[in-house]
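re the bet — no i am not wrong, look at it urself. input seq straight from the record:
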Amino acid sequence: MDGGGNDTIVARSTDGGINWDYTMTNYYPDNGNVFNMASTSVCDSELVTDGKNVYMLTVFFPAGYALNNKSANNQLESNNGTAFDDQGRVKLAQGTSSNYAYYLGEFNQAGPDGRAPIMNNDGSETGYYADHDYYIYNGTSKTGGNLFYSDGEFQTAKVNFLLFRKSTDGGATWSDFTPVPAKNSSEAFFGVGPGRGIYDAAHNRLIFSTYTWNGSNNSQRSSFIYSDDEGKTWHRSPDFPKISGAFNGNWSSESTLVQLDDNRLRCFVRNGWKRMEYADAVWNETTQSYSWPDGYKDLYLQINGTPETLDVGSDSGCMLSALKYSEKLQYNGNYYTAIFISTPRQSRAGGVIYTVLLDDDYNVVNIDSSKKDNNKQIMYTLTTDGIYFGYSCLVEHPDGSLGILYEINGARDLKYETLDATK
């Protein structure tokens, strides 16, 4: 569920997934630690590492709001504006008013003692302050209210936020959050990936996959945002190319990115085809912008073989995860770039991992995940048909093995597996 009081926990393992430590990063106990449609809530998160630091982007909803109207008292609506005023400051209203006559000033320091003044729009102070978790203070006294809560003395706009954090110790501790101004005012919702983003070393660039929703399935469009200064400023890509002729609309939503050797970003998207659609985003140094020059492509239509081996599917009701492997894999005597893709083939059931092989021009030459049975194109099966398989995320370990985290038992539990990438 998107709403109802979800919080963010970061799980951290230093022994390949055998043992785990946990850290709460976004925690708001309004209405108690139980499901409540009037509560604040987080939704999806995505992680990026530059090899030294870890960065996290999280979807956050103010109290009583969510993308899914079954999990909150209010569903986000189109043309609901953004969380920021025209100077990029978090705008505030008094109580439940819709008159945003206030804004949050600059913090005087980082950490638990940091405070930001709540300002009138004319630049004068109100005497109220907020800490980095947006709890409210009247002078130095904590009131018990929060800018995100429905009973706060001052409240944010009722739109979804993207909260950005940084960890310098491998995810053990995290910085204060910074709200990211990437949502357009006409959009009902602008969300994250979720899963694992990309670090572009050539540009010192953090890249997070994103998508928008504006009231209907067909309004959804994938994109990504990126920052070249560790989250101080952000830019947004053009939307993923419109998919034509799909069985269930031409939308694209939750997506996953891989970076190929020439720095292009290959984006695989959840979509209405129930097949694996992707497109390549290319950076132009002259215009300092991304584009999708070749439109989208369909893996189903690219593979040669019998109808049985052409059946390369991905359930449209779930996200997928993609990972470019660090080594080339051998197939029919040649070596190819490999992309692993985890996805359910049924409606959140029948979890598999495909191996997509690319030639030197990054064209798909084959899909073969087992490297067995005389190179027959089959998948590596994680859960059998009819057995639940939900959201997932792939990672490569330092020893070259694959790790995959995925939802099981109706998303009530998580499972982590380590797999040999060459078998």
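see?? The radius of gyration is 22 Å. told u. also Confidence is low (pLDDT under 50) at residues 301-311, 369-378. so pay up
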